[in-house]
Amino acid sequence: MQKQELVYQETKFTLDTYFLDPIADYETQIERPLVIICPGGAFKFQSDREAQPIALKFNAEGMHAVVLHYQLIDGQHSVYPLALQELATTLNWLKTQQAKHINLKKVILIGFSAGSHVVADFNSIMLDPEQREKIYPAELEVEPAANILGYPVIDMTLGWPREEEWAMKISPDLYYWQAQEHLTKNGKPTFIWQTVTDATVPVMNAIIYAQKMDMLGIPYEMHLFGSGSHGLSLATYVTQNPGQEDNLNIYDAEWWKLCVNWLKLQEVLPKF
Prior knowledge:
Distance between the termini: 28 Å
Largest sheet: 8 strands, mixed
Helix content: 25-40%
Number of helices: 7
CATH superfamily: Alpha/Beta hydrolase fold, catalytic domain
CATH architecture: 3-Layer(aba) Sandwich
Number of strands: 8
InterPro entries: AB_hydrolase_fold, BD-FAE-like_dom, GDXG_lipolytic_enzyme
Shape: globular
Structural class: alpha/beta
Oligomer: single chain
GO molecular function: hydrolase activity
CATH class: Alpha Beta
Protein name: Putative lipase esterase (Putative)
Domain BD-FAE-like: 27-158
Keywords: Hydrolase
C-alpha cells in the first residue's frame, strides 16, 4: 500500500492505493478494473475494517483498489460538497495513472454506511451534468461504471443520524441529505446489501434507493438479509473486532460472493 496526496482547490486529502504489479510473464499487460472504496464511520472517522480488508479482497479478484479518505466533519468544513469534489478529483487523477494499467471503463465505487451516502450522492448528483457543474465545474473525465452500497445511508431523514444537529454538521445544505431525490437516468448500475435488523441505519434507506432506481429503469441488484447488525464489513473473522461477536454472520458474509457474481454480470470481471 502507498499513500497518495491529492488536492481539490486548497484542500488536501489522501488515498491509500493498492495497485497490482504487472505480471512479468505476460507479453501484453492486462488493463485491470479498479475500485474506489469509501469506508463508513458516521462522518467522524473512516473505519479501517472497511478499508484495507476490502481492498485486498478486490485485489484477489484481479482488481486495483484505492481507499478514499474523503472529507469528514471537522471544525473547518462540513462533509458536502467537498467529499463529492474529492471523489471527482480522484476519478480524474486515475487518468494520469495509466502506467498502472487501469481499465478506465471499469472503475467501480463502493461505500459502506456513511461512505455509501457519498457514493449514492455522487451517483445521483455528480453524474448529472446540470447538477454537477454547480459544484464541480471541471469536466469529469472518468465516470464510474457501477456502484456497490453496503448498509447504506441514503436519506438523512430516515433514522440516521438521529440528531438533526449532526445532520446539519454533515451538510447545512439540505440538498445533499436525500440521495434518492436527485437520482436521474444518468445513474449507474448498483449492487445494494443490508440487513433488515440493522439497528443503526434503517433498512428503508436501501429500499428507497432501489425503488428510485427501479422507477428510472437503472439496473440494480439488492440483497436484504434477515438478521445481522450494522457495520459487518466482510462479516467474517477477517474484519472482526476482537470480542465483538456481532461482527460475525455466516449468512450475511455471502454478500461478497453475490457481489463478485454481479460484477461478472456487469462485465467488470470476466465470467471465467
